[in-house]
Amino acid sequence: MRTILNVIWLVFAGLWLALGYVAAGIICCILIVTIPFGIASFRIAAYALWPFGRTVVRDPDAGVFSTIGNVIWLIFAGIWLAIGHVVTSIPLFISIIGIPLGVANIKLIPVSLLPLGARIVDND
User: Please, which residues have CB within 8 angstroms of residue 6's CB and are 6 or more apart in sequence?
Assistant: First the structure.
């Protein structure tokens, strides 16, 4: 079932969201200072492509630099990416078959707001 949902997700929402994260990652990797943001953005792009069967876990030992980085990310990119998730989840919620996809889209909002100090792991 996860594979079917992931394929449907990939076609209707995942590809477009992943392209947005990749674009943000490329922009962040242009400057040396923002490379950690770019790496986090690429990691989230992989999660946005295939979200079913995976979840986000916060790392309690992330440290103060990830907190500062998350505040910077929230101001410059996190809000816009979260808005993108909300906007793409609305048409998914309208159709019956898209409801699980809309839920998955909403599930991506916390990691899009605060990506540093988060790990994406399999549910198993």
Answer: 14, 50, 51, 52, 53
Residue type for position 117: G
Judged by DSSP in three states, 97 sits in coil
pLDDT tens for each residue of 61-81: 888 888 899 999 899 888 988
Q: How far is CA 111 from CA 6, 22, 116, in A?
A: 18, 15, 8
Task: Determine contact, residues 57/119, Cβ cutoff 8 Å.
Answer: yes
> CA-to-CA distance for 29 and 11, rounded, in angstroms?
27
Q: What does each C-alpha distance from 10 to 46, 71, 75, 93, 122 come to in angstroms? A: 11, 29, 28, 16, 18
pTM score, whole prediction: 0.84
Inter-residue contact 112 to 74 (CB < 8 Å): no
Give which of 114, 84, 78 is closest to 13, Cα–Cα: 84
